[in-house]
Amino acid sequence: MRNIKITIAYDGAGFHGWQIQPGLPTVQGSITDVARQITQEPVIVNGASRTDAGVHALGQVAHFKTKSTLAVAEIQRAMNALLPHSIRVVEAEEVGPDFHSRWQSQAKTYRYRIWRGAVLPPFEHGRVFHYSGRLDESAMAAAARLFEGEHDFSSFAASSGSEDDDRERTMTRVLYSSEIHREAERDELVYVVRGRSFLRYMVRKIVGTLLEIGRDAMAPEDVPKILEQRDPSASGPTIPPEGLYLVAIEYPDPTDSLAAFGRSRSRALPTP
């Protein structure tokens, strides 16, 4: 049985999110249908991140197992020929049998785009959040850094949609970096966050809070207080999904595992 890893880009505007939902168009559903058509097997496509409806991706990662003898390049070409144009498999490779796109991910990077110009270009419709009002961007930048580190993000989370999952999930998350900056030569603010994992709507609620700070409805020093309250009503609004992009997902370097295996073998060998 072969294990195929695929990296996917998609425009999420026409889909009800990543995860398969009966009777609704989803990214996972589209890819699964195509993978089954190509392999003629009931394959299951597992994704690293369950992006919500309207959220885009530049580097979503998924995997599926198959007995097909088709070359990986042929699988990629066939998938792109059959998938809607709003979904592209940008990379495909065969990986070890133990690889799992979701459980082995070490970090994810998200980007949220805010268009600041008075007029939204038509080609950006559905791909950015448009806000042309006054914003204190320096206050937003200072506040963004306060989300870094390990915190209970209950104030910045929505229900997972399952009462059982909500009871069992931990609300503590670690953000390695959290920054907002002006995009060079574009009338656009970009929030970029990198973390181990994220709660549902977490990034969109963080951006909503940053916008409230930019409007002077909140202050940067309110961020630690909101985190301490652990109350979703204390944060800013959940901002619309169209400005959010899953940029990249990171995995352990397989060469590190091979090197560690080699070291363990050399220690176990008797001295000649």
Polypeptide structure, described:
Helix 1 packs across helix 2 and helix 3 crosses helix 5 (202-214). Strands 1, 2, 3, 4, 5, 6, 7, 8, 9 and 10 form a ten-stranded mixed sheet that branches. The protein folds into two domains: 2-95, Pseudouridine synthase I, catalytic domain, N-terminal subdomain (Alpha-Beta Plaits, 2-Layer Sandwich), CATH 3.30.70; 107-250, 2-Layer Sandwich (Alpha-Beta Plaits). The protein has 272 residues and is α+β, with helices and mostly antiparallel strands. The longest helix is centred in the C-terminal third of the chain and has 15 residues, at 254-268. The chain has helices at residues 27-39, 72-82, 137-145, 163-168, 202-214, 222-229, 254-268; strands at 2-10, 46-47, 56-66, 87-95, 107-115, 129-130, 149-152, 172-182, 188-195, 244-250. The protein is globular. It is built from seven helices and ten strands. Strand 2 and strand 3 form a beta hairpin.
Compact overview of the structure:
With 272 residues, the chain is an alpha+beta fold. Helix content is 28%, strand content 26%. Strands 1, 2, 3, 4, 5, 6, 7, 8, 9 and 10 form a ten-stranded mixed sheet that branches.
Strands, helices and their partners?
Blueprint: E1 2-10, H1 27-39, E2 46-47, E3 56-66, H2 72-82, E4 87-95, E5 107-115, E6 129-130, H3 137-145, E7 149-152, H4 163-168, E8 172-182, E9 188-195, H5 202-214, H6 222-229, E10 244-250, H7 254-268
Parallel strand pairs: 3-10, 5-6
Antiparallel strand pairs: 1-3, 1-4, 2-3, 5-9, 5-10, 7-8, 8-9
Helix pairs in contact: 1-2, 3-5
